[in-house]
Specification:
The complex is a heterodimer of chains A (292) and B (219). Chain A has 292 residues and is mostly helical. Helices cover 82% and strands 0% of the residues of chain A. The longest helix of chain A has 30 residues, at 150-179. Chain A starts with a helix and ends with a helix. Chain B has a domain at 55-205. Chain B is built from 5 helices and 7 strands, in the order H-H-H-E-H-H-E-E-E-E-E-E. In chain B, strands 1, 2, 3, 4, 5, 6 and 7 form a 7-stranded mixed beta sheet that branches. The chains are: A mainly alpha (292), B alpha+beta (219).
Chain lengths: 292, 219
């Protein structure tokens, strides 16, 4: 990868690419955005259709506890993947099971999990700051391009391919189940399986994005791209493609803003995707007014 | 009518038994736990490097012991120089100019004819709470050096961080956040640098960000 970064850096110094690309961390960040956009954009419209926005928020914050547990188990601060994946996958299984069998409304149950995992995570993190410099933990909460390594990029690519393959395999059933679970059952889909399956895919997508977006803000990138695309989409295909395009534009735009103004990447990406959402909202209003 | 009826298909949709589903969930949870255990057991950084200082370094951070001898010497001198500058800051309320430090003979600001790696042009800049001591080499091929000091914002509550190589408490009680950076390419941007990591600088540590000695117990 060093030769690749040097080649890109050379292009940046010759003016072929923007000058910021002389830094390997920015090249890595851009590659991450290229991989993340299809993953998060792809799951985003299903998250919105299946009304799982709050579930995504709870998962992102469960990752804080996962990070703390990973560190307690001796994982490095820059890659506590065992703790993150383990705790988030277990939380997902627990949340989906309880949601399916409890009599309380789903958002109330997710709220309970949300509060529990966040409270536990914050207590553990505060305990850990006696061992770790608190500034090192900030990048976990808010995301930082500077902490992304080639190993993270490889993991992102591997998980991205896995999620894409599984999503494509079950896409029609998932979409049908999102729109009409009885119809999906008649078509041969198993709603319980699909619910667990999609929740686990979403968990993988969220956990692998945390280094860039941050635990506190990751849900924005699995909800807002689809919300923005829905404002201008005319069918399922354009909805899906729109979600991916919005996720890419927000990621690349946030990356640029983060580098220029030295703000956390997660915050910049969320600002960018929110701006796109309001832009599409305005476009939709104008289109409707003209149609009338 | 018979043909139309034949196209209908009866499908009974039954929810899975809660007990069977719980069994699947528990088995899946066990698979996750075993997977994490195997990952931790085989992850070299989690076990082999347990307690290692490099384990918790971010990609833009390095330990000074892994750097060339010339950089190690400059790092040591900068730590000494910074302590002198902090002492002046605590007594006068302002950061001393590099010329003043040089006139006191404080390394690395003072000219040292025996120094290998050439001379440096030191400057002091500040913007808000950020203070930079920036050293640019006069000889090509040498790295640039930066000591970044972040002072507490006026009116900010006391910093609860313990004193370590990144947190220095002045005699006035103010807690400073200090860091030492090196950059192989000495072409740096003008103005006060606030986030060196975003401009290709490498932060240097003596013992690492999380392995500083614990504070003495309160008396």
């Amino acid at each position: 990868m060093t030769a690749f970064y040097a080649w890109i850096g050379g292009l940046a110094q010759r003016g072929v690419l923007p000058s910021d690309f002389q830094y390997p961390f920015l090249v890595r960040g851009f590659l991450c955005v290229l991989v993340l956009a299809p993953i998060l954009g792809g799951v985003s419209h299903l998250v919105v259709t299946r009304r799982m926005a709050f579930f995504s928020a709870a998962l992102g914050q469960a990752a804080i506890t996962g990070v703390a547990l990973g560190l307690l188990l001796g994982e490095p601060l820059n890659a506590p993947y065992g703790g993150m994946f383990g705790f988030c996958l277990l939380s997902t299984l627990g949340m989906v099971y309880v949601k399916r069998h409890a009599t309380l409304p789903p958002d109330t149950l997710i709220g309970v999990f949300h509060a529990l995992t966040l409270g536990l995570g914050l207590c553990l993190l505060v305990a850990l700051t006696r061992q770790f410099n608190v500034h090192q933990v900030e990048s976990v909460l808010f995301g930082s391009l500077l902490t992304v390594t080639d190993g993270d990029l490889a993991l992102l690519l591997a998980v991205g391919i896995l999620v894409a393959v599984l999503l494509i395999r079950e896409y029609n059933h998932l979409l049908l189940d999102s729109l009409s679970p009885p119809l999906a059952s008649v078509a041969g889909a198993e709603p319980a399986y699909l619910e667990y399956f999609f929740a686990l895919l979403l968990t993988l997508s969220i956990v692998v994005s945390l280094k860039i977006i941050g635990a506190l803000l990751v849900e924005a990138l699995v909800v807002v791209p689809a919300a923005a695309a829905r404002n201008v989409a005319r069918g399922t295909r354009s909805y899906l493609i729109g979600s991916v395009v919005v996720a890419f534009l927000a990621g690349a735009g946030g990356l640029g803003v983060s580098t220029r103004f030295l703000v956390p990447t997660g915050g910049a990406v969320v600002l960018a995707v929110s701006a796109i959402f309001f832009l599409t909202l305005a476009v939709r209003s104008l289109t409707r007014r003209n149609a009338v | 009518m018979t043909t139309a009826a034949a196209t209908f298909r009866r499908v009974e949709v039954r929810p899975p038994s809660a007990r069977i589903e719980l069994g699947h969930v528990v088995r899946s949870g066990m698979v996750v736990l075993i997977g994490v255990w195997l990952f931790l057991a085989t992850d070299s950084t989690a076990l082999r490097d347990a307690g290692s200082a490099t384990k918790h370094l971010l990609p833009f951070q390095a330990l000074i012991r892994d750097r060339p001898p010339l950089e190690q010497r400059m790092f040591r001198e900068l730590q000494e120089g910074l302590l002198e500058a902090e002492s002046v800051r605590a007594s006068t309320g302002t950061w001393p100019a590099t010329a003043a430090l040089a006139s006191e003979g404080i390394p690395p600001f003072a000219i040292d004819p025996t120094r290998k790696g050439g001379r440096y042009d030191w400057s002091l800049t500040s913007h808000g709470a950020f203070v930079n001591y920036l050293g640019l080499p006069e000889q090509p091929g040498s790295p640039a050096w930066l000591v970044l000091v972040q002072e507490p914002e006026p009116g900010a509550p006391p910093d609860p961080a313990r004193e370590d190589e990144e947190h220095h408490r002045l005699l006035t009680g103010d807690m400073l956040h200090v860091s030492t950076w090196v950059r192989a390419d000495p072409r740096v941007t003008s103005g006060t640098i606030r986030a060196p990591q975003a401009e290709g600088w490498t932060q240097l540590y003596a013992v690492g960000p999380s392995l500083s000695p614990p504070p003495p117990p309160p008396k």
